[in-house]
Amino acid sequence: MTRAAEPDHADIAPGHTLFGRMFYDTLWVLCRNLGVAVFGIRYRFAEPLPREGGLLVLSSHQSNLDPLLLGLVCERRLSSLARSSLFQWGPFGAIIASLDAIPIDREASSVAAMKTIIRKLRGGGAVTIFPEGTRTRDGKLGDVQSGFALVAKRAGVPILPVAIVGAWECWPRTRLLPLPGRIRLEFGPVIPAADVAAMDGSTLVALVTQQLTELDAAARRLRDGGAAEPSPRRAAFTAAKSAGRRRAKESSGEETVASGRATTPLPSAEPLAIPASLPVPAASIEGLSPPPPPA
């Protein structure tokens, strides 16, 4: 008797059929317009999002809107977890399957769920996990659970942390329907797969907890009208620009002509050329509306 072949992962393959692409793009456009108009979605990436390969997105969890919000602002199609029983509801099951939802049997062991997620990541998918385990009850960031560390290390993929604020005010778990508001998403730098593999589980959990805490604080400050902290590249450019102006001023003061007892400084022959603006990668520019739908 021959051994059964390994599964081809068809049960968790991305729903990129013709129907899936058309439905996804149509729903994306409708939700984008609704999201910007009703929830005032704003977002910022610390660096460009990896376009290919497995990616584990770790997000704070504020409301049922979170998977939708992440899908609207990311340039990649993200897969979220869904109860396997939901796929049995005929048309609704077809809809969530076309949106790349991953079926998870909550009555089965957590090991089986982790294996499903790991297969998806190893196949090159981008998967969203909410490490707090449940939606916040008071709008604040909850305790980060350690389960994601094993998944990321076993799958060998990078991690993208992101904090969402404002979604709890729009749709807390105690309310039946959402209300208008202002929502902010703040994406941190990607933790490379090599760094994930090099850290032990507790160190990785501590790092992600620290980053989510900092991103959450930054998102709240920016949502409430605070100024964004300059990026290291822009801060270095500003310092170089100020130093150049000082050198130009000192250089112009050295060349003088006699005029009685006083001296008059001559303007420098060649003024210091300073670019008008600093080129900033597109991914670091603050988003006022979501990008085009992912392919």
Quick summary of this structure?
With 295 residues, this protein is of the alpha/beta class. The chain has helices at residues 18-39, 66-73, 91-98, 110-122, 147-155, 167-170, 193-198, 201-223, 232-254, and strands spanning 42-45, 55-59, 78-79, 81-83, 102-104, 126-129, 159-165, 184-187, 256-259, 262-265.
Task: Give an account of the 3D structure.
There is one protein chain. With 295 residues, the protein is an alpha/beta fold. It has one domain (12-229): 3-Layer(aba) Sandwich (Glycerol-3-phosphate (1)-acyltransferase). Helix content is 39%, strand content 14%. It contains nine helices and ten strands. The strands form three sheets. It has a six-stranded mixed beta sheet, with helices on both faces. It has a two-stranded parallel ribbon with strand order 4-5. Strand 9 (256-259) and strand 10 form a beta hairpin. Helix 1 (18-39) packs across helix 2 (66-73) and helix 4 runs parallel beside helix 5 (147-155). The radius of gyration is 25 Å and the shape is globular. It starts with 17 loop residues before the first helix and ends in a 30-residue tail after the last strand. Mean pLDDT is 79; it is low at 1-15 and 254-285.
